[in-house]
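Sanity check

After download, print the first record. It should look like this:
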Amino acid sequence: MGDKGGEANTLFNMAFLERSSGNLQQAQTHIQAVIEIIEDLRTKIANKELCASYFASVQNYYKFYTDLLI
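Expected structure tokens:
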């Protein structure tokens, strides 16, 4: 529907549930899709302060991603 932020949040929730169920590969697939969406959105923010604020607001996605890699 064009709500990329909402899509990222839904995929994050799916990744969390998959990890909780022990499906690490599927969790990683979902969180990689989240990171792609976030990076796409972040690159479209021209104002550096807004970009930094946005990036700070999505740090939990990156933390989850790195936790899966460990």
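If your output differs, re-run the checksum step. Summary of this record's structure: The CA atoms of residues 12 and 61 lie 7 Å apart.
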